[in-house]
Specification:
Length: 706
């Protein structure tokens, strides 16, 4: 026997004949979703490589003689008796070995040659063969770490992979073919669920990259045909992803060459390399009208995690506050005890809603259930909620519904549809319930997740949007269950892109705190923190300034998006005073300048956003970019709003103005006193006061003919 696996315990070479002195096995899969490879020479195990396919810890008896060393994502912890514990995230890989030299365990059967009785051993360097792709030197924008380098995606081995750096939401893989080579087909295999949302296959011409094919999702093993070209350099450029880009294989082939048998379906070349826009959807556009008008919303992350506030058993826990159960691996039975302490005497739904109104926000997104599985409303589906499991006995979402309705705020909710660390069949809790793969996830959706979303849609009046998150295991079919439920109960409710695969969302949720560099078409939103965490952490005092928040709001609106800004109330239900002060200062600015934000469109210019610089691409596949922050422009029919963050002095000049200007004035001037201006040959010059009328940003309104 080469390998034995039971649960998360793995034994390597537990029983092999003594005569087998040299043995190598490659990517045997064990119970618990691990891939294991190992090499044995002269009767001694030399190395063991283990990869996690679903993200869970394991115990391993590697049968290594001598002191065990390691490279990779995690260091082993000795348990005694020759066994070790490894804590691995999904896709993590660790190499265990003995001796002073790190082995290079590239493993596969060798072809037997004359006089060779043993066909096992290390494989020779791979050369190109039909159906395996042209070979070349590979490099990438960034890497996750050791074992996830660029060449792992170009080696013909689907068990290895390239991963971009932690936190990346874009990146690229480049192959240098060594000389000009004719290509017309590419093969791409994306690991796991559909991470990629926008990509291009490109060739290098001089110092620029030209697209051969553009697309959206990859989601599996695909073949892409394009017009044949001669090139030396080709790359897969993932420009937008909802998770860290992870590619198992990227190969390029000559036109018409056989692709690997597992790659399907083929995506044919079209007359234009750009992906066609989605068909018009009048119902979707109608749902989005209020969203485009609102532009600015309040996110509230609050729950049991607000009680430990970033520390557990006296020790600070790294990471964001609401993830403390995961980061500290707190057992369910221990974490549940927090419910008995949840009695937020300072909670005041009217005060929260009034803060949103004072801040100039138009919608409120409340965390009704985060990944810890605890519901912040009175749920009939699960007793693990703030009414039934705590001494508080109140329903904050019901109170917030009334408070928002009184103030004309759109009520929305956050719901973690996939991750639920309290439920044995929910995703994410591998310290209590093991890996996700063997769980009955559909049962979890059927018995908890979908019924709770139904409760929220039927018990709290009109809902503006549902903010789903971390779509683990969310296939297109599973995503559609939620979409069908929402459409049947509240057809006007918006659904964000973090629901899951299938492209059934109404708008795009960008990465946390991510603001694009340039104008970005479509409906999208940036959710962001006011300090460094979402849930309350008592030691996080890295507050953004009102000036910074104001700039981000204007910057996002000028590029076409919405800004959802978070606050994290403490365990008593009180929103930190500094958060309130910051929000109200921005709200005061909006009372004067709100017409330049609400319902405003993006800039017609773009040069004010920054300049692309010459030089190598950064770790996320983007060229160097010098952001400029002197001014931004938002628009409405017949009006340009120039937001001046750096006062230009006695005058402001604007190029590229082709329509006739009729009036210019400052929004801070209640009398709207006209400012002198001149316009000639597309250039506009406006006379300004010597000093700025506003402390944060002064808005110059320029009226023009259609």
């Amino acid at each position: 026997m080469l390998l034995q696996g039971h649960g998360n315990l793995i034994r390597v070479f537990p029983a092999i004949p003594a005569a087998w002195k040299e043995v190598v096995f490659h990517n045997l899969r064990t119970e618990g979703a691990f891939l294991v490879s190992a090499g044995r020479k002269n009767g001694q195990t030399e190395w063991v490589r283990i990869q996690s396919l679903s993200g869970e810890p394991c115990r391993i008896v590697p049968s290594l003689a001598g002191a065990v060393r390691s490279t990779g994502a995690a260091a082993p912890r000795a348990l005694g008796g020759g066994s070790y514990e490894l804590t691995l995230a999904m896709g993590d890989e660790v190499l265990l070995y003995t001796g002073d030299t790190v082995p290079r365990p590239v493993v596969a059967p060798l072809t037997s040659t004359a006089g060779e009785a043993n066909p096992w051993g290390l494989k020779v360097p791979r050369t190109a063969t039909a159906g395996t792709g042209l070979t070349g030197k590979a490099r990438a924008s960034s890497t996750w770490g050791s074992g996830y380098e660029a060449d792992k995606a170009c080696d013909g081995d689907e068990a290895t992979r390239w991963g971009a750096e932690r936190g990346a939401r874009s990146g690229w893989l480049e192959i240098d073919l060594g000389r000009e080579t004719r290509i017309g087909r590419a093969v791409v295999k994306e690991l796991g669920f559909s991470r990629t949302e926008e990509f291009a296959i490109e060739r290098k011409v001089g110092d620029t990259w030209q697209p051969l094919h553009r697309g959206t999702t990859i989601a599996g093993h695909r073949v892409y045909d394009f017009a044949p070209v001669e090139t030396r350099y080709v790359r897969l450029h993932i420009t937008r992803a909802n998770e860290v880009p992870t590619i198992a294989e990227f190969q390029v082939l000559p036109p018409g060459a056989d692709a690997p048998a597992t790659a399907a379906p083929r995506v044919p070349v079209s007359a234009t390399p750009a992906a066609p826009p989605p068909p018009p959807d009048p119902a979707r556009e109608a749902r989005l009208r209020w969203f485009h008008e609102a532009k600015y919303g309040l996110f509230i992350n609050w729950g049991l995690y607000s009680i430990p506030a970033g520390a557990w058993k006296g020790k600070p826990i790294a990471g964001i506050g609401e993830w403390i159960m995961n980061r500290a691996k707190i057992p369910v039975k221990e974490y549940e005890l927090l419910a008995a302490r949840f009695n937020p005497a300072k909670f005041d739904a009217d005060a929260w809603a009034q803060l949103a109104l004072d801040a100039g926000m138009k919608y409120v997104v409340f965390d009704c259930k985060h990944h810890d599985g605890f519901a912040l409303y009175r749920s009939q589906v699960s007793p693990y909620n703030c009414h039934d499991a705590t001494p508080w006995k109140r329903d904050p979402f019901k109170e917030l519904q009334a408070a928002c309705a009184k103030r004309g705020l759109k009520l929305c909710f956050y719901y973690s549809q996939a991750q639920d660390w309290h439920d044995p069949n929910g995703a994410g809790n591998d310290w209590d319930f093991g890996p996700d793969a063997p769980k009955d996830f559909d049962r979890y959706l059927r018995e908890k997740s979908l019924p709770q979303v139904r409760e929220l849609l039927t018990g709290y009046g009109p809902i503006g949007l549902i903010w789903f998150d971390t779509p683990r295991l969310m296939t297109p079919a599973r995503s559609k269950l939620f979409v069908d439920l929402v459409r049947s109960l509240q057809p006007d409710t918006l659904i964000n892109s973090r629901l899951g695969q299938g492209g059934l969302h109404d708008y795009q949720s960008r990465g946390d705190n991510e603001i694009p560099r340039v104008v970005t078409p479509g409906a999208w939103e940036t959710a962001a923190t006011i300090n460094d965490t979402w849930g309350f952490k008592k030691d996080d005092h890295n507050w953004k300034t009102p000036e910074d928040i104001c700039f981000k709001l204007v910057d996002i609106v000028s590029k076409g998006g919405n800004y959802l800004l978070n606050v994290g109330p403490d365990a008593d239900g009180f929103i930190p005073s500094l958060s309130q002060d910051i929000l109200r200062k921005v709200g005061a600015w909006l009372k004067v300048n709100g017409e330049a934000i609400y319902g405003a469109g993006c800039t017609p210019f773009g040069d004010e956003l920054g300049t692309v610089l010459p030089g190598p691409l950064d770790k996320r596949g983007q060229p160097p970019f010098a952001e400029m922050k002197e001014w931004r422009c938002t628009t409405k029919p017949g009006r340009l709003y120039v937001h001046l963050f750096k006062w230009p002095g006695a005058g402001f000049e604007l190029s590229g103005v082709t329509t006739r200007i009729t009036k210019a004035y400052l929004l801070a001037d209640h009398e709207r006193t006209p400012l002198r201006f001149t316009q000639a040959q597309g250039r506009l010059a406006v006379d300004l006061p010597a000093k700025a009328p506003a402390a944060i940003a002064s808005v110059l309104c320029i009226e023009h003919l259609p």
